[in-house]
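Thread amino acids onto this structure.
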């Protein structure tokens, strides 16, 4: 069993929290501070309980060396604004300055360490680096769900050396995503996105668990081609055609129905379309490509979603970044929001999916749970053990 904060007495302790502050930054400004806000309940709870808090995170992909634009100093400033207190920042993760600043940290104070991935030992899961981090604190708290599927020093190394707990965000992720593995029925899974390859393990794990798997996005065209349909110039994954054929064969023997688009929005070009129309059936003519699910499919998918008690949504239904091709994704999200209002449990994961919800103007508060981790949520849906959670087992 994973230990949660209810079992921790924080008073007088120095607590090291692994957060996920991997926020989008453009022109030196944070574009979306959601991941910082998600960590606030745990930080505030531990401070109120009498702890001193040291925070660590990665940001971007600096490839094991310092990159000025990827410094966490901007995150420390924003965190200070959000909690209404001074947040100290250390321009290194290890070294004399870091050791001194941690040692001088008093109860009620917060210190943010520099970007973990400036040190190559983070991604290589260096025992030496994990040992240095462990010396900073009495207790470790894991709050970075977005990276718990990685075997990095701050994810599996440190908790092997310190008493370790799951923070409130990680607790929420575990509670909601577990519903996908033990759902209330009817159970509908809606999968989209460009690549079938990334969703194959999810489809295989959900076979015989879900009542229906609704497929959209670019991955649908690989399955449609495997089924024998004409897909025109639509992109598909030739290397996974045989796997797609096997999935369709398995579904015929399974209690799970795999449903593919019955019509499509098609265009003669993605970048500069001169011709955009809705097909009458599931075939696509030469010279045209599928860019979204069609009107008939939207209604059918919405009806299935509205009948569900548990819903998983991972991956957009079309190229939602273009307004002309966003209608399918919008229709599915609207149906999930309505089903949630009727008491269904809705679990949304995946970076593109979350981006679509935001871009199309929907509030995340209208869904049961929007996961903060794309890759981690996929692994969870695949039924895989996540190293950063497994290590927390008491």
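Threaded sequence (394 positions):
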């Amino acid at each position: 069993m994973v230990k949660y904060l209810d079992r921790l007495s924080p008073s007088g302790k120095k607590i090291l929290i692994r957060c996920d502050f991997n926020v989008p930054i453009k022109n030196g400004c944070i574009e979306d501070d959601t991941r910082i806000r998600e960590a606030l309940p745990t930080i505030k709870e531990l401070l109120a309980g009498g702890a001193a808090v040291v925070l660590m995170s990665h940001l971007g992909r600096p490839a094991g060396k310092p990159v000025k634009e990827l410094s966490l100093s901007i995150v420390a400033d924003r965190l200070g604004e959000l909690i209404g207190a001074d947040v100290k920042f250390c321009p290194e993760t290890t070294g004399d300055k870091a050791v001194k600043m941690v040692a001088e940290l008093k109860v009620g104070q917060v210190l943010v360490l520099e970007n973990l991935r400036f040190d190559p030992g983070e991604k290589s899961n260096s025992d030496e680096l994990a040992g240095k981090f462990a010396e900073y604190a009495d207790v470790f708290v894991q709050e970075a769900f977005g990276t718990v599927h990685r075997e990095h020093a701050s994810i599996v190394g440190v908790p092997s050396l310190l008493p370790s707990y799951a923070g409130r965000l990680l607790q929420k992720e575990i509670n909601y995503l577990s519903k996908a593995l033990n759902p209330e029925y009817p159970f509908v899974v809606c999968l989209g996105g460009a690549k079938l390859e990334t969703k194959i393990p999810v489809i295989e794990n959900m076979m015989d668990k879900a009542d229906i798997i609704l497929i959209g996005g670019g991955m649908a065209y690989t399955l449609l081609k495997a089924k024998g349909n004409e897909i025109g110039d639509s992109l598909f994954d030739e290397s996974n055609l045989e796997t797609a054929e096997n999935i369709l064969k398995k579904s015929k023997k399974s209690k799970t129905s795999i449903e593919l688009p019955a019509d499509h929005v098609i265009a003669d070009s993605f970048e500069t379309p001169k011709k955009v129309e809705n097909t009458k059936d599931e075939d696509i003519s030469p010279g045209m490509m599928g860019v979204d699910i069609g009107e008939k499919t939207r209604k059918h998918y919405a009806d299935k979603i509205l009948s569900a008690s548990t819903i998983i949504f991972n991956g957009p239904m079309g190229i939602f970044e273009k307004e002309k091709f966003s209608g399918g994704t919008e229709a599915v999200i609207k149906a999930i929001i309505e089903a949630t209002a009727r008491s269904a449990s809705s679990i949304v994961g995946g970076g593109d999916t979350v981006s679509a919800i935001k871009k199309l103007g929907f509030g995340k508060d209208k869904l049961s749970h929007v996961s903060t981790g794309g890759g981690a949520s996929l692994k969870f849906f695949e039924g895989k053990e996540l190293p950063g959670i497994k290590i927390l087992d008491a």
